[in-house]
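pasting input
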Amino acid sequence: MIQVLSIPENFDAVLREFQVRFSDGYADAFLVYYDGMSQQSLININILYPMMLGIESAGSESREESVYRRIIAAGQLSKVYEWDKVIDGIEFGECAVFVDGCECAFVADTKGWDKRGVSEPSTEASLSGPQEAFIETIMSNIALIRKIVKDPNLIAEKISIGTKSKTPCALMYISDIANNALVSDVRYRLKSIELEYLISVSEAEQLIEDNSFYPAPQILKTERPDKAASALADGRCVVIVQGSPFVMILPSVALDFIEASEDNYVRFPAANFMRLVRLFGAFLALFLPAFFIAVALYHHDIIPSDLLLSIEATREGVPFPVFVELILMELAFELIKEASIRIPSPVGSTIGIIGGLILGQAAVEANIVSPILIIIVSIAGLGAFSVPSIALSRSISVMRFAYTIAAALCGFVGIVSLLLINIFYLGGRESFGTSYLAPISGFGGNLFIRPMWKKEKRPEILKTKHERKQPHMSKKWEERK
Amino acid sequence: MKDKFGKWESVCILSNALLHRSLTYSAGCAFEHTGSGGTLCTVIAGVIALIILYALMTVYGRHGAVLTAKTSGGAAHSLIFGAAALFLFVSAVCTLYDFSYLIKSLAYPNTPIWYIFVFPAIAALFGGFGKKRSIASAHAIIFPISAAAIAVLCLSSLPQADVSNLFPLLGSGGGKFTLGILSALSAYADAVLILPAVEDFTDCRSPRGIVMTAAVVAVIFNIAVPLCFQLITLNRSELISVIPIYKLTKSISYGRFFQHPSALFLAFWAMSGILYCAAAIHYAVRVVRNLRTKGVSGH
């Protein structure tokens, strides 16, 4: 044990030797744990105290049974006969007790590392919904989901990933709802990952997603337990990775990335309106700069002559071609966005003033860019921020450049050609056996949100064991009318 | 069932195939031949097309198994499918060329034609050699948008409509009117796509409902566009040598910002054309592949 845990080089590894008092005499023993990973008070009171000060064992019991049944007072205590499992337990904050004369080690759950408390979601804020977000601890995250779902059929399978890190992951699904093929596929992909260390959920995402090269995200990540619970109730799978405050929802289709948490907590007309606004925002973010370039370079006739002249007048004195001007502005915008993420929060507002006011205004006054272009880039930027998924928002930012280049090359024909290539590509992709563009493309499901009483069936694309979520008449009180 | 298209996808694929040609030449040719009789030609052509398709689908419903590619045998059926594949391939190439040529003359006068040809061709080839699910998804998303755009275009022209522009109904009359009908009928030539595509439909044994729905949608648009065009065109000479839908876009104005939606129409036109080409290439390639792997008699 001293060699395996590199004691004393590992100064946080604690190996405590002591003697256990049995009815037939004393036996040598030692316990091992990592300081900071385990709760010392728990070890002192529930393990060391009863073992050292002695609790009489029954005469007929073996030492192993006495320790297990009568001496160590731990809620989760297991007898482990394999060395690797003992080490895995210690690495995960458990305390291993070895007693002379016993063939096994006693591994007690004494996890007690410092963790963040459950706080408000930072990237998926909701005005009307719950204000809880996942944290970095897998067990807390499972509990956050379980307290919402409250279904005995909710399964949380433990899967360790990483030959060295053995990062604990949980595959969650509701066994009488989720499609067996889907669960098997997710389980198989997770178990077949071979790498030494798995640090975060994003790494796991890249290792199990169907296509890593396309910018569009294929697996939805959420920090909201209610969203994860809702996905489980629909028949999807949820994967939690220790150390990440986000969980993966599988399978995910394109429309899932437009769905905001707020959608389920407001009246459905408002939710649909907001969804349309978000779709419009995404559309603007993706196509507005390209549209501007296409009009400016090829299709002048789409706008009135006087408006075209006034736009051209604002560009008078700008030394760059309109395409270069736009790319420069886009890059400046991305620069500000990146800087605002890295900048410390106390000076965060400064970046807005510097980026928005000083740079923007100064650039216009210096005739480096035209005012119309600043409007175009700002609207496109706002549109990208209206998309609830950060991953999709980033993907839109990347694709925006591609569409702008296509527009510069061949106007609307270039945009349309690239759009169709994108749709052809995405149309053929699948996320865990589900068409990525469903239900937009009509392979089942709906583009718009329905009122609660109309959500009778689970999404068809998930091929769940029980299609119906609620009876045809979920509002039974209406039958009396 | 996983790889079968739903009704929505199937209708969109067929409607687009039956509609895209009328956006370019078919209706224009009808006006070319008969002048003011062009709209009536498209109406008659639409009715004839519906009758022919209904008859064919009724026969298909009875002998579907014989016509379905995988269960058929014999050189005759293989020849039919081979001819269909050849037609689709030639049609796709012609559509791409026509599209590039027209686009160049309308919006890109200083750009070489090959340059305009390259972009839609790449997109069509990408879709054509991709998965069939890609074709279905793209049609299901894009066709309703294109159709809605055309519908808005037609409705926008109605305030300028003058019913007297429809007369004389028979236009030049006689043989030219018959030629006009035949020209308008050529819009439905791409119904050939049904032959290889039908096995992808959810209910491939009795696809009459799907085909007739698609045909009705296409006929409505194929009639509406020339009708609206003629309703707003006072000068007889303007009916000739034009693409009706493009002329239609030139004639309307959406307020101060969008003076003419003609350039936007190019985008929808391009989408419709590329979608058709992708579907045509896809099915042509699939038929040829089947013929090569199973032999002429085994197709």
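fyi Chain B is about 70% helix and 0% strand.
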